[in-house]
Write a structure and sequence with these properties.
By secondary structure, the protein is an all-alpha fold. The protein has a single domain, classed as Helix Hairpins (Orthogonal Bundle). The chain contains 3 helices and no strands. Helix 2 runs antiparallel to helix 3.
Length: about 80
């Protein structure tokens, strides 16, 4: 797999991004499992690349979630507190 760019992730639908995260997590688990069994890593930088791709997808999902809640959130009008006394 090639490097996953942020612009590509932003173009994805949510279900596609979730599917991609699941695929990446499976690949990461297989790679880590092979290394723990004594096999040499085919590409030592691949683990780092997979971890960063997962983080990138989750970060963009979090950004999108924040935008949607900010748009739908109703603000209460500001009322100054009455002075007690």
């Amino acid at each position: 797999m090639a490097v996953l760019r942020a612009s590509e992730v932003r173009k994805m639908q949510k279900k596609d991004a979730d599917k991609r995260v699941a695929e990446l997590k499976l690949e990461l688990a297989k790679t880590r499992g092979n290394i723990s069994m004594g096999a040499s890593a085919q590409s030592p930088g691949r683990i780092r690349e997979i971890r960063r791709a997962i983080a990138r997808i989750k970060t963009i999902e979090s950004e999108n979630k924040g935008k949607s809640t900010a748009l739908t959130k109703k603000r209460m009008p500001h009322t100054p507190k009455e002075a007690s006394g």
